[in-house]
Structure formats: C-alpha cells, structure tokens
Write a structure and sequence with these properties.
Elements (H helix, E strand, L loop, with lengths): L3 H23 L8 H10 L2 H19 L5 H21 L7 H6 L3 H7 L4 H18 L3 H25 L5 H6 L9 H25 L1 H19 L5 H21 L7 H11 L1 H12 L10 H4 L6 H28 L1 H21 L2
Helix pairs in contact: 1-2, 1-3, 1-12, 1-13, 1-14, 1-16, 3-7, 3-10, 4-7, 7-10, 8-10, 10-11, 11-12, 13-16, 14-16, 16-17
C-alpha cells in the first residue's frame, strides 16, 4: 500500500525547495535581512529533512511489504534504485562534461566540489548502508533499537567528526559540511534513519489502532518533539527535534487526506511521486551544471533582484516545474515505452559526449 501523506510531504518539500533555492540565488543581500525572508529560510530548512524522512519511511514500508522475499532479490532491486540517485547527485557536481578533461585538467578545488555531498548523495549512501545492515538483521525490535541508537550517536558525534577532519576527499565530503557539502551524513543521515524508525512504528500501529488514533499520536509526538527542542543546548539535537517536530505535525495534517480523493489532491500526490525529476531539473535551472553553464539564475541574475521580482521568478519556476512533473507523469503512465526510450536516449547522448569530448 502506498500512503498519500508521504507524497504530499514530498510535494510540500518540492515547492518550499524551489522557492528557497530561487530566492537564495537571486534576492539582493539587503532583502535577505528582513523578517519575511528569515521566516521563509526557516521553512526552507525543513525541505531536506522532509525528503530524508520520507525516503526512510518509504524504505520501511518497502521492508514490510517484501519481508517474505529473498534478501538478495531485495538488495538487487534496492541497488538498481539507489544507483540512479547517486549518479544524478554526482552528475550535478561534475565540473566538466568530458572524461578526458576530467582526468587531465581538473583542479583540486573542482575535485573537492565534485565529491560534495548533497541531498541525493545522502539519500543514496544512507539507504545503501541501511540495506546492507538489514541483510543481517531481520528482527523488527532490534532494527528499531539500533535505529534509535544510531541516530542519537550520529547527532552526538557530528561536532567531533567536523573537528577531526582536516582535508577534503571523497570520505570527508560525505561526513562533514567543512568543505562545502550541503547535507553530509553527519548529521543528516539521522533524519533518514528517523524516517525508517517512523515507518516501522507507523506500519505496526496502523494495523493495530487504525489511522485516526495513529494520526493523533503522531500530532502529539510532533508537539513533544518541538517543545523538547527548546530544552536542549546542543545545536544538532535542537535542530533535529525542532525540524522533526514540525514535520511530524505536518505529516499529521497530510494524513487527514489519506482517505480523500479529488483532482487537486491527486495532482499534489502526483507531484510528490515526481519529486526526483523536479529536484534534478530545477537545480540545473537555478544553479547550473555542465548541461547549463551560463543560462542559469545564478549566472543571469546573481543576488541582484528585489523582493517582488524574486518572488515572481520563484512562483514562475514553481508553476513550470509542477507542470513539467505533471506532463512527465502523464506520459509515463500513458506511454511508458516512449518515455523510457526518451530518457535512455538522453542519457546515452550525454554519456557519448562525456566519453568523446576532448
């Protein structure tokens, strides 16, 4: 069973992510000091944890559905889903669309940038590590206990990890924000592990007490997490409880629509299902990539636009990306072979250019 509230959570995160990235890229520095922008910045801080929690929750639901399948079959399917996420994540950081230039002309700074860990890398590597661990551990109570212990240890040791790393490389970029990584495993993998924990508990209680009572428990838990965030002085724990508290309350709100239907609701569920595509394309439009070096928001506008124009640009991009997600999903559903051929052809063309360009 696929739960709507997860797709609605991702749809919310997609919209907040696009407005956050757009305003950050184009809004003039003075306007970023206003209370309005600071409020939007706080909301934007929920987007990465929302994607991570939703990914962990999806992993938990998948485990519950496939508990009778062979471990090796589950691992193969999981790897085939993780690899495109990791490849896309590192592709967005690729300094040159040429293997020859990459091997002969890339600077140390560009290599460090290529290895930076953003949301796709964190999702991919964390799920891969968890899936390997879950090969050897099947008991749900042990998984829950290890998940709680793991996320607390990650949050606790994040400052020590940051202080112990002194140079950028593949591993250090995975672990710390010190050299430009936006969402390294310390501390952000804790959110995905929390999603796994949440999904396992949700699945257990869903069949036991029903969705209405479960929704009430989720909302109360969100309030408790949010309140507890103000009782701790450790920054990583404060941010974790603050963000997860708000996201639990938001998930509770979306759960109210679980048994509802309607065009608008179905549209946003669809957008949540296409969040990966929307993330990938909007990053290229806002920040650029080897596919769009010059005609991106950062290069075209910099931090030079006033609040009104910046908001108009953000809303326009949101509408465009929602339309793109809808059209892509429509044709993927109606003409799956055509969409698959188109996708694979584009990937093949990019790969050929990457291999042959000197």
């Amino acid at each position: 069973m696929r739960f709507k509230f997860l797709d609605l959570l991702k749809a919310y995160a997609v919209i907040m992510m696009i407005q956050g990235h757009t305003l950050s890229a184009v809004l003039e520095p003075g306007a970023k000091q206003t209370g309005f922008y600071q409020f939007l910045h706080i909301i934007r801080g929920l987007t990465a944890p929302a994607f991570l929690i939703a990914s962990g929750c999806g992993l938990a639901f998948s485990l519950c559905r496939k508990k009778n399948q062979k471990t090796q079959d589950i691992l193969k399917k999981r790897i085939t889903r993780i690899l495109p996420i990791l490849i896309a994540g590192y592709f967005l950081h690729l300094p040159r669309l040429s293997l020859y230039q990459l091997l002969t002309q890339t600077s140390k700074e560009e290599i460090a940038q290529f290895f930076q860990c953003d949301i796709l890398q964190t999702i991919g590597w964390t799920i891969l590590i968890l899936q390997i661990v879950l090969i050897f551990i099947k008991e749900k109570r042990i998984i829950i206990s290890l998940s709680i212990s793991g996320l607390l240890l990650i949050l606790f040791f994040t400052p020590a990890v940051n202080n112990s790393i002194s140079s950028p490389n593949f591993v250090s970029q995975l672990l710390t924000t010190k050299f430009g990584s936006g969402f390294p495993l310390f501390p952000f993998s804790a959110y995905l592990i929390f999603g796994l924990l949440f999904g396992l508990v949700f699945n257990e209680f869903y069949t036991w007490i029903g969705i209405r009572r479960l929704n009430l428990l989720i909302f109360i838990s969100g309030i408790m997490f949010f309140a507890f965030s103000f009782l701790t002085r450790l920054e990583n724990f404060y941010l974790f409880y603050f963000r997860t508290g708000l996201l639990l309350m938001l998930s509770s709100l979306f759960l109210l629509f679980e048994d509802k239907t309607g065009r608008i609701l179905d549209f946003f569920v669809l957008i949540g299902q296409e969040s990966f595509l929307i993330y990938f394309i909007h990053i290229i439009i806002v920040y650029g990539s080897v596919l769009n070096v010059r005609n991106n928001f950062v290069q075209c506008f910099g931090e030079s636009l006033n609040t009104g124009v910046s908001i108009l640009l953000a809303v326009s991009l949101i509408l465009f990306m929602l339309a793109l997600g809808y059209v892509w999903h429509y044709f993927k559903d109606k003409q799956p072979l055509v969409i698959k051929t188109l996708r694979n052809s584009l990937i093949l063309l990019i790969l050929i250019k990457f291999l042959l360009t000197i």
